[in-house]
Amino acid sequence: MTSHRRRSSLPFATLGLIACASVIAACSSVNQGLESAGQDFASLIADDSGPSLAPAPLPRYAGGQRFSYSDGRVERVVSSNGKQVTWKGAGGERFTTDRNFVVPKLSSSLASTQHSVINGAGGLWPLAVGKADRMRIGRSSTAADGSVNAKAARNYNCRVSNTAKVSVPAGSFDTYRVQCTRFSGSGKRLVETRVWHYAPAIGHYVRYEEIDRKTGIRKSVDLVDFAG
Hints:
Blueprint: H1 12-36, E1 66-69, E2 74-80, E3 84-88, E4 94-98, E5 107-108, E6 113-120, E7 132-142, E8 148-168, E9 171-183, E10 190-199, E11 204-212, E12 218-227
Antiparallel strand pairs: 1-2, 1-12, 2-3, 3-4, 4-5, 6-7, 7-8, 8-9, 9-10, 10-11, 11-12
């Protein structure tokens, strides 16, 4: 018995268009899936339209520097020992940070929680588009009786996603966009995303954004003024 295959009556060009449309639809589906997972898919891709910047080393801070923000905060550098920076903030707060700004506050005079660096995402530096590293931060708190309660470490995936020209009240700056996404202890659930627009020209970030992945609440703080 002879078998005969039915030939499509559609022109070859039409078939090509259908194939392309199928690929685009598949890609769109993947993108939507990532976005629904809360990953800001587009921001993870380097944007070639941003300004060209030389690799940026870790910022260096000196006593007397001052930074004012759109949420009313004014923070002054008290001292820097090369690895850590001591600041004075609002309400008499004194706190310590790592020179790498993606690391959460190490300690604060107004909080009982302290952070310790297990892996500080040092692989991001000097900043360049496409660099990525993981960050792991330990947390502990001091009770009223002075005892220390250990807590689970927090895990972040960090990336220098692109460059961008950013205008804030303090001026217009060429910046690196640095993004860190925190995952749950199991690593299966996105918790929050933090984004810094770092301006090498002044050695500090000029915009900070934070997205709570559970509530969807997004906040943004801009640099209003700086000195020193």
